[in-house]
Amino acid sequence: MSFFDYFCHMKQQEEITIQSLANNEDIQIGYSDNEIVIVDSIQKFTELSSAHVTMNAIVICTNGKVQAQMNGIQMELHKNQVAIIPQNVTVTDVMISPDFDLKGLFLTNRLLRSFLREKISIWNDMMYIYRHHVVTMDENEILFYTHFYDMLTLAIERGKENPYRSDIIQALICSAILGLCGAMKWMLSADNRETHPSDSHFQRFLDLLHSTEVKHRTVEAYANDLCISPKYLTTICKKNSGKTANEWITEHVLEDIRYYLKQTDLSIKQISNKLGFPNPSFFGKYVKDHFGTTPAAFRNS
């Protein structure tokens, strides 16, 4: 059974997750761990009825073409084009040419954010403000990614005994995604379209989240900074991204917590103060509620 066959035989509304892909023995997978799945190719071709993809996906068309609806928006992908799909997207009405083939990368939002850090704003602008989901690569970019994929394949196949194999693979994938973000940034700078007022408010909200050190604030506080109502802020977030304002805030706060606990030597009290929590006890409860463990245990895990 092929990757798309797997989608077609799912129940309606069933979600596609990292785990469901990795655990399906009928799908040809180049590599998988708890946060990444790499699909090497599609050998058999059929129509896809519907799928809800919960993670982020980057799909390179290596031959032929595919058409699909992504959250109701028509998308067409040709050879040497990359489809960039954010999390929580419903893909329907897929039509594939007989010679279609691809390479696909699926990764969790947590890992994507850890790869991009402050550059996540480029990804969010592409996905949610301008809704550019297709990037065309020139010959030099194709050569770059061909060499990159060869290195990734070597790391996967020959590094099985290396204790740092997962770190090496993630570093290579991070480099490729950063290269893709460079292409995204160029596309955004070349796009002179005006945004709808609600899109503009949403973009300002994301910019505020990215630039504010203390992100652990209420929806009302962000709405006041933007001179709009909390209800309107939540509405435009849901309209543009499928996520509420509070979900966006929580995502950013949790990523900052992960970063400072895992990547710095700051004490838990210093991190609590830096991220705007009233005291270490409240910070510890917040970490326990979201990660299921204490800050100290999470740092040492």
Structure description:
The protein has about 300 residues and is of the alpha+beta class. It is about 50% helix and about 20% strand. The protein has 13 helices and eleven strands. Strands 2-3-10-5-8-11 form a six-stranded antiparallel sheet. A five-stranded mixed sheet has the order 1-4-9-6-7. Strand 6 and strand 7 form a beta hairpin. Helix 4 runs antiparallel to helix 7. The two termini are about 35 Å apart. The N terminus is likely disordered.
Task: Quickly describe the structure.
The protein is α+β, with helices and mostly antiparallel strands and 301 residues long. It contains 13 helices and eleven strands.
Tell me the Rg in angstroms.
20 Å
Number of helices: 13
Query: How many β-strand stretches?
Result: 11
Q: For the largest sheet, list the strands in their spatial order.
A: 2-3-10-5-8-11
Spans where pLDDT lies below 50 across 5 or more residues? 1-13
Intertermini distance: 37 Å
Structural class: alpha+beta
| Proportion in β-strands | 15-25%
How does the overall form come out from the CA principal axes? Answer: globular
Strand-and-helix sequence, N→C?
Answer: HEHEEEEEEEEEHHEHHHHHHHHH
Nearest-integer average pLDDT? 82
Largest sheet descriptor: 6 strands, antiparallel
Q: What is the percent of helical residues?
A: 40-55%
Keywords: DNA-binding, Transcription, Transcription regulation
InterPro entries: Homeodomain-like_sf, HTH_AraC
Domain HTH araC/xylS-type: 203-301
GO molecular function: DNA-binding transcription factor activity; sequence-specific DNA binding
